[in-house]
Amino acid sequence: MEKKSSAKAKPSFEKALEELEKIAERLEDGSLGLEESIAEFERGTRLARYCREKLDEAERRIEILQKGENGSVEKRAVRVKQDTGEIDDDEDMQGSLL
Amino acid sequence: MSERTYSVSEITRMLKRSIEGNPEYTGVWVKGELSNVTYHSSGHIYFTLKDEQAVLSSAFFKYANKNLSFRLEEGMSVLALGSLTVYEKRGSYQFIVSQMRLEGIGELLKRIEQLKKRLIAEGAFDPSRKKVKPFLPRRIGVVTSPTGAAIRDIIKVAMRRFPNIEIVLAPAKVQGADAAASIVRALAELNRPAHGIDLIICGRGGGSFEDLMPFNEEPVVRAVLSSRVPVISAVGHQIDHPLTDDAADYAAPTPSAAAEIAVPVKSELIEEIDYLSIRAANALVSRLTGLGERLDSIAALRCFRNPREIVAMRELSLVDLEQRMTMALKEGISAGRERLLSLPDLYRLWKTETRSRRSRLELAWGAVDKLSPKGVLRRGYSLVTDARGRVIKTVKTIKPGESIGVMVADGSMGCTVNTVQREVRGGKEIIGKG
After folding, report:
1. Which residues 6+ apart lie within 8 Å of B312 measured at CB?
2. Distance (Å) from the alpha carbon of A10 to chain B's nearest alpha carbon
3. Residue B133 near residue B232 (C-beta atoms within 8 A)
4. What architecture does CATH give domain B123-264?
5. Please, are residues B33 and B77 in contact by the beta-carbon 8 Å criterion?
6. CB contact under 8 A, A55 and B266
7. C-alpha angle B154/B156/B159, rounded to 5°?
8. I want to staple B173 with a disulfide (CB 3.0 to 4.6 A). Which of A29, B13, B182, B347 is the partner?
9. Across the interface, do B270 and A14 touch by the CB < 8 Å criterion?
10. Shortest CA gap A86–chain B (Å)
11. Which neighbouring-strand residues pair with B430?
12. Quick one: DSSP state of residue B208?
């Protein structure tokens, strides 16, 4: 049971990409039987979709940590200028030093 | 009272002789702070050395200062070796410097060197301790000043490489006496699992030796060492790298370089995925072409070489159907192959022409889907597998009574073999009957 659940755990992007490459190589060398080829191809299609999803998973967001009222730390999203990377923010950032 | 009178020159010369002849004023080290530093066009440097109570005007002549490794600046704490002289024309005394050392930095360098030795002895810098950064970081934490150039450069480079990047800045003071504590707090905060950060960039842009000093201080170095999340040290430097470079899992010479180490280029990864998908599809299509040719040869064998087989199969129309299907499959495959064979060119085209890339890929995938075995099954063929799920390509290994699986477009059947017949030249050979 335990083995099964660990095998089902989502692979990292890197692992999935490596696996996709291995599948392409195996299909190319032609040593697989037909139904294995189909199964591998389908697995490759799933892995490619998974990799694309992983790349789009993050949402572009720049946040600054700052000290809150009672010593807690809060996250605050800020705008940035894309060409310069400059943080476009009115608040006094020097005052927010940790 | 002495009746002897002296001229100004005489008395000054006497003073000069008594000062310059006194070994106590010759070749002595004087500790003080630099002020009124003037680099003269002649190459001589003039300044005063001072402490709380006194000032000493000094000159560092060209022949003596030519090997000086640093530029003299106001407020620097130095040790100067020299001799006192009297300048008769002005009636002043002057300290003529022959050598100079930075007093504070010498101490600091010694301390850094000792700390480094201690940490090496502890095994703190062992390569085996280094953590591996994620290939595709989910959220990057940055420890640096919120107003410096470093954060700008990191954001700019990271966004260019990966537009939907997530960055969390832990603003820290990066120079001055309280910088070390600030950096330690920021590192600790980013290490809290709640932030979901899987890679940290810690650093600042370039600066003077003193500016970079916090990144040589033990608490900061230890905080980098004990970080749960992998750390890239990103302190701008030319010659001497700070100790955080040794302690971190990765070291970059500038914040921009750190962002390049941290973030992969998204468009390149998409190209890689597309390229591998196309290779897999291409390989499968070649495989299916082989299958189509085999079906073709079977059909030819049955209708031209062995007319009796047609009778035996009782349904002439079935052969027609089979032929038609073979033709369709062949046509479909060759059309698809043409498209797929040109994919390497398309792939190159896509690199420059990103707008239509996605739709072209979908087109190719449509062709592949049509040609995939499932598509073939939908056209009426079936796949037969043995008890272990392998496709049966020959009757040689099949015996009557054996269980086989038959896969058609919408499902599969478990079947039992009744008879086995093998095609031989001029007829068929019955191998067995159940």
Report:
1. none
2. 14
3. yes
4. 3-Layer(aba) Sandwich (3.40)
5. yes
6. yes
7. 100
8. B182
9. no
10. 5
11. B421
12. -
Element (H, E) at B74: none
d(Cα B262, Cα B154) in Å, to the nearest integer?
10
- Determine which helix (DSSP H) or strand (DSSP E) holds B420, and give its type and residue range: strand B419-424
The residue type found at B30 is V
Domain boundaries, chain B: 8-103, 123-264, 265-380, 382-434
Question: What letter represents residue B322's amino acid?
Answer: E
Residue in A closest to B289 by C-alpha: A34
Domain B8-103 has CATH 2.40.50.140: yes
Q: How many residues does chain B have?
A: 434
Distance CA B279, CA B282 (A): 5
For chain A, say whether B155 makes contact (Cβ under 8 Å): yes
Paired strand residues for B241:
none
CA distance B324 to chain A (A): 23
Q: Which of B300, B323, B295, B257 is nearest to B382 (CA)?
A: B295
| Whether the Cβ atoms of residue B117 and residue B146 lie closer than 8 Å to each other | no
Return d(Cα B155, Cα B159) in angstroms, integer.
6
Q: Which of residues 351-390 of B touch A (CB under 8 A)?
A: 372-374, 383, 385, 389-390
pTM: 0.59
| Non-local CB neighbours of B278 within 8 Å, separated by 6+ positions | B340, B343, B347, B361, B364
* Mutation site for B-interface testing, chosen from A31, A55, A57 by largest number of B Cβ within 10 Å: A55
Sheet holding B403-408, edge to edge: B383-385, B403-408, B411-416
Whether B303 contacts B296, CB under 8 Å: no
Closest by CA to A26, choosing from B373, B275, B284, B390, is B284
Q: Per-residue confidence of chain B (434 residues) as pLDDT tens digits?
A: 567 899 999 999 999 999 998 989 999 999 999 999 999 999 999 999 999 999 999 999 999 987 676 678 788 888 999 999 999 999 999 999 998 887 777 767 888 899 999 999 999 999 999 999 999 999 999 999 999 999 999 999 999 999 999 999 999 999 877 899 999 999 999 999 999 999 999 999 988 777 888 999 999 999 999 999 999 999 997 667 899 999 999 999 999 999 999 999 999 999 888 888 888 877 777 777 666 666 556 555 544 444 444 444 434 444 444 455 455 445 444 544 454 444 444 444 444 443 444 444 455 555 555 555 565 666 677 778 777 667 777 888 888 888 888 877 777 788 889 888 887 766 666 666 54
